[in-house]
Every structure is written in structure tokens, then in C-alpha cells.
Design a protein that fits this description.
By secondary structure, this protein is of the alpha/beta class. The chain is 38% helix and 20% strand. The chain contains eleven helices and twelve strands. The strands form two sheets. Strands 2-1-3-5-6-4 form a six-stranded mixed β-sheet, with helices on both faces. A six-stranded parallel β-sheet has the order 9-8-7-10-11-12, with helices on both faces. The chain is globular and about 60 Å long. The protein starts with 7 loop residues before the first strand and ends in an 11-residue tail after the last helix. The chain binds NADP nicotinamide-adenine-dinucleotide phosphate. NADP nicotinamide-adenine-dinucleotide phosphate (NAP) binds next to helix 6 and helix 10. NADP nicotinamide-adenine-dinucleotide phosphate binds next to helix 6 and helix 10.
Length: 292
């Protein structure tokens, strides 16, 4: 493939990156708008990250996406962090701005917020539950706080990690009640009874362990709630199938991928992202209202 001179360049820094859907999604977006831009996935070892970021800056890249395992380390390397990236302690998008300064953003938060709208699930004044206490769970907590959730229950197999996350989120968002629980059936059942949303922010159910679910049975779900699975490989996870059987609204992790990508695209190009083309490029499901 020819990349002619004058092509604007964006990179993905991660390890692994071989199965990432982002190059396909961004290529579709550039093509939809007729932009002469290219997006290249680069495998980078943790010890090489500082040099990789300096290299992109020196080579004139417009910016980059950052993925596992570099999101937290990248935050330390930025010249400036926006408020959301600072709250997350993690960066998934870099823009080399004026004077080639590295500006760090976290668009996973906006990705989750846009996904809730796309799936027509409201959490304002309501209760939500999050499974997991890692980097993605942190971004979900920030998104839920920004959406005006009243209570957020965090579930983790190592409850001390959930307690730590709940503590730091309570400091950032004193108006939201954050609680920590062990990932057990009884605690889940009690908490989910009144919940408007359940988010899986663990990798449970991801290929090749597609027969696994982070919840033991669909009895803990109900038909007045939404269920978002951040796992998108496969796109219809066991958790989402359980949610369908319980009559809950299902929200796809592919939507989060597309919407976080759309916000990154807008930061790099300054143009509204062609979201439909991006959703199509990764075979994202339609929201329930639009299904034939
Ligand atoms: P992470 O920082 O490694 O955190 C993973 C969390 O899941 C930790 O709390 C971990 O608990 C927990 N966990 C892992 N395996 C578990 C198991 N078998 N049982 C119970 N808990 C388990 O990872 P992350 O960056 O937050 O990502 C989490 C998932 O979200 C990944 O699958 C990632 O691909 C996905 N994600 C998707 C999107 C999207 O665009 N759709 C965006 C971001 C992330 P311990 O601390 O006890 O290990």
C-alpha cells in the first residue's frame, strides 16, 4: 500500500496490537471523509514507551491511541493532561499540539457516555453496578459520575482493589455514593435489584473463554436495567445473552470502541467523526430500536 508524502499519520501504541480493530475503524473513517490520513498499529514494549512517544513526536505524527498495557504509563509522559485523563490516571489518546507538546486525553469516558445514550439507558439519579476495579472500571466510574449517577456499586474478586477505587472516586466526586463489594452472588443480587445499569469491566467472557460470565446466573438481572459488556470479542458475550434472556437492554462493547475512537478522531482531525462508518467497519450491532 502506498502512503504518499503529505499523509497525516496516527499510531496505536500497545502490546499486543495484532488483533486490534482500531486500524480498520479509523481507515474507514478517513476514507468516509476523503482524508489523506493513515493509522498504523505499533507493538511497543513497556520499557520502550518513552522512546516511542518521543519518536512519534519527532516523526511528525498528529497523535496516537494508547492501549493495554501502556495507558497509565503514558499519562506520566504527557506535557499536559486534560481533566478527564487526570481523573482516570490514564491516557488512551495523545495529540501533539502547539510546539509539538504531548497532550493526553482519555476518550474511554466519553465512549461509555455516548454508548449509554446510543443504547438509551439513563443513570442520572440512579444506581449502577460495575464489575472489576482496573483501568476500564475507573473510566466507567468517571463516566457514571459525569452522567449524574447517584450510587455506584463496585464488585471485585480482590475487594481491597474495589475499596481503593471507591475511595479515590468518592474524593473526586463527593456527590456520588461509591461502595465496594466482593464479587459474590448474594451481594450482586441485593445490589442489582434497584440498579439501572450493570457494566462488566473485567475480561471475563473474552475469546477464547467465551463460555464464561462474570455473573453466575441471570436471576440477578431484571428487565428494567441495561447491561453493558466492555468485552467485545465475541460481540455477543455470554453475559449479554444472559441479559437478553432476563429482558434487559444490552449495550455492546463495540459501541464503546467506536465512540471512544470517534472522540479521538475528532481530537486529531478537528472534524466530526463519521460514526456510522466506524460502527459499520467493526460490525457493531444496531441499537434495539433500529433492528429489523
Ligand atoms: P485491568 O486493568 O487488567 O482490570 C481488569 C479487572 O478485571 C481487575 O479488577 C481484575 O481483577 C478483574 N478480573 C480479571 N480477571 C478476572 C476473573 N477471572 N475474575 C474476576 N475478576 C477478574 O483491565 P482493564 O484495562 O480494566 O480492561 C478490562 C476489560 O475491559 C478488558 O477485557 C478490556 O479489553 C475491556 N475494555 C474494553 C474497552 C472497549 O472499548 N470496549 C475499553 C477498555 C477496556 P484483579 O485485579 O483481581 O486481577
Amino acid at each position: 500500500m502506498e502512503i504518499p508524502p503529505g499523509t497525516e499519520l496516527v499510531a496505536l501504541l500497545g502490546d499486543p496490537v495484532a488483533h486490534s480493530l482500531s486500524p480498520r475503524m479509523h481507515a474507514a473513517a478517513f476514507e468516509a471523509l476523503g482524508l489523506r490520513w493513515a493509522y498504523v498499529a505499533l507493538r511497543v514494549l513497556p520499557s520502550d514507551l518513552p522512546e516511542a512517544v518521543r519518536g512519534l513526536r519527532a516523526l511528525g505524527f498528529v497523535g496516537a491511541n494508547v492501549t493495554v498495557p501502556h495507558k497509565e504509563a503514558a499519562a506520566e509522559l504527557m506535557d499536559r493532561l486534560d481533566e478527564v485523563a487526570r481523573a482516570c490516571g490514564a491516557v488512551n489518546t495523545i495529540v501533539f499540539g502547539e510546539g509539538r507538546r504531548a497532550l493526553g486525553y482519555n476518550t474511554d469516558v466519553a465512549g461509555v457516555r455516548r454508548t449509554l445514550r446510543y443504547g438509551n439507558v439513563k443513570v442520572s439519579g440512579l444506581r449502577a453496578a460495575v464489575l472489576g476495579a482496573g483501568g476500564a472500571a475507573r473510566a466507567v466510574c468517571v463516566a457514571l459520575a459525569q452522567e449524574g449517577a447517584a450510587e455506584v456499586a463496585l464488585f471485585a474478586r480482590r475487594v481491597e482493589r474495589a475499596e481503593f477505587l471507591a475511595g479515590s472516586m468518592s474524593t473526586l466526586f463527593p456527590g456520588v455514593q461509591f461502595e465496594a463489594h466482593p464479587l459474590h452472588q448474594d451481594a450482586l443480587r441485593r445490589s442489582l435489584q434497584e440498579a439501572a445499569l450493570l457494566v462488566n469491566a473485567t475480561p471475563i467472557g473474552m475469546h477464547p473463554d467465551t463460555d464464561q460470565s462474570p455473573i453466575p446466573s441471570e436471576e440477578v438481572l431484571h428487565d428494567r436495567m441495561g447491561v453493558l459488556d466492555l468485552v467485545y470479542n465475541p460481540s455477543r458475550t455470554r453475559l449479554l445473552r444472559m441479559a437478553e434472556r432476563a429482558g434487559a437492554r444490552t449495550l455492546s462493547g463495540l459501541w464503546v470502541l467506536a465512540f471512544q475512537g470517534a472522540v479521538s478522531f475528532e481530537l486529531w482531525t478537528g472534524r466530526p467523526a463519521p460514526v456510522e462508518a466506524m460502527l459499520r467497519a467493526i460490525d457493531a450491532p444496531r441499537p434495539p430500536e433500529e433492528r429489523p
